[in-house]
Amino acid sequence: MQNLLVTKTDFQKVKNATAHKTQDYDTNEMVLRRGQPVTMAFTFNRQLTSRDELKIIVETGPSPSKQTNTKAEMLVSSSSSGTSWSAVRGSSSTNVLNITINIPVNAVIGRYKMSLQTTSGGRPNVSKVGNMIVLFNPWAKSDEVYMSNEAEKTEYVLNEIGLYWFGNATSYSSRRWDYAQFERDILNITLTMLDKNVEYRKNPALDVSRRNDPIYVGRVLSAMVNSNNDNGIVVGNWSGSYPGGVSPTTWNGSAAILRQWMQKGPVKFGQCWVYAGVLCTALRCLGIPARTIINFQSAHDTDKNLFIDEVYDENGVKVEAESQDSTWNFHAWNEAYFARKDLGLQYGGWQVVDATPQEQSRGIYRLGPTSLYAVKNGDVDKPYDTPFVFAEVNADTVTWVKSRDGTKRKVYTDTAGVGKLTSTKAVGAFERKDVTNDYKYPEGSDKEREIFEKARNIMEPPRSSEAFGMSMRESDSADDSAPVKPLFTGSFKKAPETQVGEDLTVTLMLTNTVTDPQKIQINMTATSIIYNSKPVKDFLTESHSVSLGPNEEKPLEMKLPYVAYRDAITADNMIQVVAVCTEEKGGSLLAQTVTTLKNPALLIRPIEDVKYDKTASVDCIFTNPIKEDVPDSILIVEGSGLLRDQVFINVPSMKPNERITIPFDIKPRRKGDRSLLADFSSKKFPNVKGFQTVPVASS
Q: What are residue 102's DSSP bridge partners?
């Protein structure tokens, strides 16, 4: 009898992709989720007989083996195994046979080579039949990434457009981010990230065998998204100057960054929301539910004592050399959703992962996964990196003033200033959802202080520690006693909303709290800063002597004209004003405020109905609001499902108050509500953002 040979394989891609919810991936490969079956049709050179034996072989990685769960051989039989790889005969007609393969719920994720071995009369013949990509499956109840809520799975796995916030806790705005996890090349690039990580280079077979574990994969990705140890995706830059690359605020999405890395290596430059956007893309792309988190007043505790030490001189200028601690106006990270089999049931669910290279974790710049439950309950001894995350949302801030003679005095300890308005995108809506209470108990409550002390007791450093927080408190040059309580109060009013190009006024409110008159000396400094509070340029300093009558309240204004801050401000649009206030009897306080200036509007307007696979025209509209020419501008537009690549448009010089309309075309490749995102950049207005939801109808 003629040897049995396979002549054709029908992966039934449309049917299987729909069943596995992978139909949106822009790839010719078959993309599947573990923990559920897939059916394929095989055509043979003759009709099968009872003597023919069929075996399916799947393998992944450079050294596949059964022992490492990276290879499986399945006799095609009449029964299936729900817990391991198995292949079952289905319907047949003449020389076509349907075979259903069960992908176990603990399968290693990645690209598999598939072969079919046919044996006729003892003579085996192996044919390669193609590749398939296996992902995590949040729809499978036994998968460690399983989510029960359907709307949350749609948001955290299938949604391509995110939302993040920037500014500070008293003045913030939102921007959209295009995760683009289904766009051309993105799945292949994400799999390449796994193959470029440090552990893979050490032991490829072991690394691949561990990719069934979302804990391991999340940790690998958080390292690979930054470039620090492994030629990963994004190079960080917090200097305010970006030669050799682009400002981090230029980016609107992950696809351009990932493609540039694949072609040229590490991409310059990124900051926290860029890292969070790219990491969220990679996690969702592989099937791990993920979301981006923004934490306002986010602490960076370098000495791991849960105290953030901030030192200012008598003029209100921050003395950076005195402490490596800092409090960022906002910080972005990610949460990924999966079980923690290493810790126990209660520690499962949302896990913090962060690709921003702030501190090393076991020798590599990465963070997490950190159980959100462990953070809220002060279990800072649980892996991974729980003390750092705990401090980000719940450290205490100690403010010091350094005198001209070098002595430092503590002026204030704030137990509630860190961790404000912790936010994420709401499910199914472009709205902010507050998740602060997921990270800590309400500020000021007995429970919150109890948890803080619990964490402090676990982390209590040895007495020999040279960390700043310890040495400052023990130093002869530091006065750690209770500060002299001032007989007045001082705080800044929230500044009125101000647009770049307009003059800014900040107002310090001073109040005498006693019946005796007082004279207060105030030194005020205005500084342009990066969003992480790093000062860039002090551009205005003023000193004032203010007399206060009994119980009198008096405002003190500081005017910041556009010409003063024009050449100092960065793309973050942030100005910090610090006031050091001292009374004649020695009491002092430090007040500070951060104002985030608004950019002018950038409008996006489709000028006709938008239909699937049909070219449509769109206008982008910008008005120059200042009394100066705006030369050398560029518009960058992108949008998953609407444009295959970024569109770059050079914009002619704009006269004062001139309105300009910039046309371009889109050709949608997917239906439903899509998002267009635009970035308008010039020297006068770096990175003005615009976005528009575009409904795409059937042709």
A: 37, 86
- Residue 152 phi, psi (nearest 5): -70, -40
How distant is the alpha carbon of residue 210 from its chain centre? 24
Contacts of 404 (CB under 8 A, 6+ apart): 314
Structure tokens at 567: 């050449």
Retrieve residue 361's tokens.
Answer: 């974790």
Bond preceding residue 369 cis, omega within 30 of 0: yes
98 phi/psi in degrees, rounded to 5: -85, 130
Residue 444 CA neighbour count, 13 Å, CB half: 1
Helix/strand/coil for 469 = helix
pTM of the model: 0.94
Q: Does 331 participate in catalysis according to the annotation?
A: yes
Strands 408-414 and 478-479 come out as parallel
DSSP one-letter code for 428: T
What are the distances in angstroms from CA 677 to CA 161, 208, 607?
Answer: 10, 36, 16
Measured CA angle at 373 (ends 451, 104), to 5 deg: 165
Check whether 515 has a pLDDT greater than 70.
Answer: yes
Average pLDDT estimate for 416-435: 97
Task: Give the residue among 109, 179, 170, 167 at the shortest CA–CA distance from 140.
Answer: 109
| Percentages of the chain per state (helix, strand, coil), in multiples of 5 | 20, 40, 40
Active site residue 280: no
Q: Decide if 455 contacts 551 (C-beta within 8 A).
A: no
Catalytic residue among 325, 331, 581, 620: 331
Q: Which domains does the chain have, with CATH numbers?
A: 6-135 (2.60.40.10), 150-468 (3.90.260.10), 484-596 (2.60.40.10), 602-696 (2.60.40.10)
CA distance 595 to 170: 8
Find the angle CA(293)-CA(297)-CA(302) to the nearest 5 degrees.
95
Strand intervals (E) in 458-498: 478-479, 488-492
Of the listed 207, 309, 354, 385, which one is catalytic? Answer: 354
* HEC readout, 125-164: EEEEEEEEEEECCCCCCCCCCCCCCHHHHHHHHHCCEEEE
Pairing of strands 588-596, 518-529: unpaired
Closest CA to 297 of 367, 391, 393: 393
Look at residues 299, 239, 238, 296 and name the one whose alpha carbon lies nearest to residue 469: 299
Nearest one of 25, 307, 268 to 158, comparing CA atoms: 25
DSSP notation for 179-214: --TTSTTHHHHHHHHHHTSHHHHH-HHHHHHTTT-H
Which residue has 């999340």 as its token pair? 218
| Beta-bridge partner residues of 490 | 510
Q: What is the pLDDT of residues 453-508, one digit of tens each?
A: 999 999 985 443 333 343 444 444 555 666 678 999 999 999 999 999 999 999 99
User: Is the Cβ–Cβ distance between 182 and 379 less than 8 Å?
Assistant: no
Q: What is the pLDDT of residue 478?
A: 59
Q: What's the count of helices (H) and strands (E) in the chain, helices before strands?
A: 14, 39
**What's the rounded Cα separation, in Å, for the pair 173 and 160?**
20
155-176 tens-digit pLDDT: 999 999 999 999 999 999 999 9
Catalytic residue among 272, 285, 581, 620: 272
**575, 569 in Cβ contact below 8 A?**
yes
CA dist., res. 595 & res. 227, Å (int): 32
Task: Give the position of tokens 């430090």.
Answer: 590
Q: What is the arrangement of strands in the sheet containing 553-560, beginning at the earlier edge strand?
A: 488-492, 504-512, 553-560
**R_g of the chain computed on alpha carbons:** 29
CA neighbours closer than 13 Å in the CB half-sphere of residue 35 = 19
In whole angstroms, give the CA distance from residue 123 to residue 436: 65
